[in-house]
């Protein structure tokens, strides 16, 4: 099964991706992880990507496409995969489609987790992080035992700058601008599976299972 996972920041993609990849025994492929791996191991593609990341620039589509395609050649992808964070635009989607077509393969489902904006803002702006050990909390859904203090190391928790309301709204705006054309693109291919991400985590996953069926 070959799946693309879409959803705004705060939609719970990471949680759902973990369940899908475990139950369906396919790798969770994140572009961020691929970039870090290639840069850390100083591969040719990593050197190319590093030229942009070091300057704080987005890695160009052609470089991103090559890095993802290289990842998809690995043995663990032969029975399928879940792509998270890729494609980010129609150009990347078209490149992925051509690559898979040349291999006699195709995307089976594009899971689009939809969450109300107010709920996303509440989820993201309530997140707190330990600057020492990296543990994450939420003031409503996952509060620490002692308010403002990390359960693990006792450090004072902080709110990341990109989790304040102004930054959250900007991140959501960028996501919507990027993703709308992508949803339309896959919608025309009858691959979009819209999922109500406002529901509790377990209910969201049940809906995903119903939509994708028992394919493996």
From TrEMBL:
GO CC terms, sorted: cytoplasm
Positions bound to AMP: 31, 36, 57-59, 85-88, 92, 160, 171
Keywords: ATP-binding, Cytoplasm, Kinase, Metal-binding, Nucleotide biosynthesis, Nucleotide-binding, Transferase, Zinc
EC number: 2.7.4.3
Domain free text: Consists of three domains, a large central CORE domain and two small peripheral domains, NMPbind and LID, which undergo movements during catalysis. The LID domain closes over the site of phosphoryl transfer upon ATP binding. Assembling and dissambling the active center during each catalytic cycle provides an effective means to prevent ATP hydrolysis. Some bacteria have evolved a zinc-coordinating structure that stabilizes the LID domain.
Job of this protein: Catalyzes the reversible transfer of the terminal phosphate group between ATP and AMP. Plays an important role in cellular energy homeostasis and in adenine nucleotide metabolism.
Subunit note: Monomer.
One Pfam family, short name: ADK
Family from the record: Belongs to the adenylate kinase family.
Family matches, as SUPFAM superfamilies: P-loop containing nucleoside triphosphate hydrolases
GO BP term, example: AMP salvage
UniProt region (LID), positions on chain: 126-163
Record protein name field: Adenylate kinase
Reaction catalysis annotation: AMP + ATP = 2 ADP
GO molecular function annotations of the record: AMP kinase activity; ATP binding; zinc ion binding
InterPro entries assigned: Adenyl_kin_sub, Adenylat/UMP-CMP_kin, Adenylat_kinase_CS, Adenylate_kinase_lid-dom, P-loop_NTPase
Compartments, record wording: Cytoplasm
Renumbered residue ranges of the record's region NMP: 30-59
Adenylate kinase active site lid domain sequence ranges: 127-162
Biological or metabolic pathway of the protein: Purine metabolism; AMP biosynthesis via salvage pathway; AMP from ADP: step 1/1
Domain of life: Bacteria
Binding positions (Zn(2+)): 130, 133, 150, 153
Binding annotation for ATP: 10-15, 127, 136-137, 199
């Amino acid at each position: 099964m070959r799946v693309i996972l879409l959803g705004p920041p705060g939609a719970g993609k990471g949680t759902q991706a973990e369940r899908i990849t475990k139950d369906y025994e396919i790798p969770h492929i994140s572009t961020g992880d691929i970039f870090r791996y290639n840069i850390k191991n100083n591969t040719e593609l990593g050197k190319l990507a590093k030229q942009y990341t070091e300057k704080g620039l987005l890695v160009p589509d052609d470089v991103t496409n090559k890095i993802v395609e290289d990842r998809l050649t690995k043995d663990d992808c032969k029975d399928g995969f879940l792509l998270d964070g890729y494609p980010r635009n129609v150009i990347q989607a078209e490149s992925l489609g051509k690559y898979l077509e040349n291999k006699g393969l195709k995307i089976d489902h594009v899971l689009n987790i939809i969450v109300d904006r107010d709920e996303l803002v509440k989820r993201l702006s309530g997140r707190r992080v330990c600057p020492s050990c990296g543990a994450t909390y939420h003031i409503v859904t996952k509060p620490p035992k002692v308010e403002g203090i990390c359960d693990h190391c006792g450090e004072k928790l902080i709110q990341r700058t990109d989790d304040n309301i102004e930054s959250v709204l900007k991140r959501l705006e960028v996501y919507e601008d990027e993703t709308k054309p992508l949803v339309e693109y896959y919608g025309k291919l009858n691959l979009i599976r819209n999922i109500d991400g406002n529901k509790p985590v377990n209910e969201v996953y049940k809906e995903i299972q119903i939509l994708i069926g028992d394919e493996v």
